[in-house]
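Subject: Interface between my chains keeps coming out wrong

I've been trying for a while to get a sensible model of this assembly. When I model each chain on its own everything looks fine, but I need the whole thing in one frame so I can look at the contacts. Pasting all components below, labels as-is. Any help appreciated, I'm running out of ideas.
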Amino acid sequence: MYPAEFAYLRPPDLDGLYTALAQHGDGAKLIAGGQSLLPMMKLRLATPDVVVDIGGARELRGQWRTEQGVRIGAATTYRELQRSPRTLALLPGLAGALEVIADQQVRARGTVGGALAHADPTADLPAILLALDASVDLHSRQAERRLALSDFITGVFATDLRDDEVLTAVEASEPPEGSGGAYTKFEQPASHFALCGVAAVLTVEAGTVRRARVAMTGVTAMPSRLSNVERALTGCRADPAALSESATVASEGIEPLGDLHAPPEYRRHLLEVATRDAVRTAAARAGVRWSA
Amino acid sequence: MDPAANGTDVTVDLKVNGRHETRTVPARTLLVHFVRDRLGLTGTHVGCDTTQCGACTVEVDGVAVKSCTMLAAQAGGCEITTIEGVAPGDGDGLDPVQQAFWDEHGLQCGFCTPGMVMAIRQLLRDTPVPTNDEIRHGISGNLCRCTGYQNIVAAARSAARTSTGTRRSSRADPSATSTAPAGEVS
Ligand SMILES: Cc1cc2nc3c(=O)[nH]c(=O)nc-3n(C[C@H](O)[C@H](O)[C@H](O)COP(=O)(O)OP(=O)(O)OC[C@H]3O[C@@H](n4cnc5c(N)ncnc54)[C@H](O)[C@@H]3O)c2cc1C
Ligand code: FES
Ligand code: FES
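Reply #2:
Try treating it as a single job with all components included. I did that and got this:
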């Protein structure tokens, strides 16, 4: 399968990307790792006139410690993140999520910015980044803005990104001391995509959950926080029974999607199981000892 | 290097198995077709063409990727290693991973083998002494329709044994070193 014909540009810097986008408008498409875009182009689901490679723009690579947490350049690959122990140490739950994304070859190409801009309703990275209170930086020649990740993703493969904008970086927040994170995923074995994935970041103090961030993917039109579960957890004793109990409200008010691989009722069930596992693992990593 | 865009053609300049190659191709040319059809290196296979099977795995700057899901133009300026380039010297010998496939009968029809070898080379660079679970996780992007995987896992184990400490890494994995300065939190 070949993509339809297109012209290829690789500007040497971020400014060149802005120019290319401004010049070619909605006929242009950015390519990062190509792990989502190229399969779509082969199927002719995407037929851009101009493909603009972000690979030349060094400004989009790198990870920086910020006051809030870590700022990660959009062109950073999953593999590079996996090999960045300092970032992983600051962002609980991230390492476990990266490990279960796709396979080693896809992780070597797929980027953080591509994953977020593509907004696949079953993507793993958005779930853990929602649990880490992430925001994204969007830049164009004219303007720059910052959006909470939860406002950036607006639907199935839909975001608030404009035609002339580049997602330049994502900033994830370091949770307070005493936090632990986990990601639990049930995957479709052939594609590796999530039937259901739940990320949890819990802060535990003196045996009580002080702060909870829980987010899901794969279940509805887009990854989102599970505020019911977060409310149930906040102030709750961090013992196995109470933590498990919080998972029973996970699917309240949620209409799971169904497909060939998992009908809605099955996804609803997986959501509860994955939530229970993720919050218990996160609590254990926050230092809770069950026997204590 | 910056491939010169000329309508829908691009000039791609890269190194394959140590040799400089320059070709002008349609921009939509995938790396796997560049390698097979332009350079005649047909050891890299096309199995699924949908990023699932791993038969097309090659190394780009020392890192295993699926060449059916990368534009040749994106590989401009990079060093590519294909299955034809993994054996030491003038191609008489075998890479330790190839030898292990021979020893453990890790192939039947052989269609998946080039990609499996490239994937396991990557796995062993990252995890020199992998557990069976780590081996299976490492090759989860590669499909084999014949062997049932048992002997492929055995081959990976055997290659890990013979190559621990002794295996060369002719082309360094840049993400192992250069991510640190460019990529690490400072
Ligand atoms: C076999 C296979 C298995 C997979 N399994 C999983 C899985 O288990 N879990 C999972 O989460 N994902 C999975 N994926 C998807 C993969 O994680 C994403 O495709 C990848 O991360 C997208 O990043 P990319 O750099 O490849 O983006 P690209 O494919 O290059 O781009 C994707 C989209 O984002 C846009 N874009 C890219 N970068 C930017 C930017 N900086 N600013 C603005 N727009 C941008 C592009 O224009 C395009 O629309 C799988 C993919 C494959 C092929
Ligand atoms: S041909 Fe590339 S993954 Fe199957
Ligand atoms: S040996 Fe035939 S596909 Fe693996």
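Reply #3:
Confirming on my end. Residues A 29-37, 39, 54, 74, 101-102, 106, 109-111, 113-115, 117-118, 123-125, 161, 166-167, 191-193; B 51-52 surround flavin-adenine dinucleotide (ligand 1) (CB under 6 Å).
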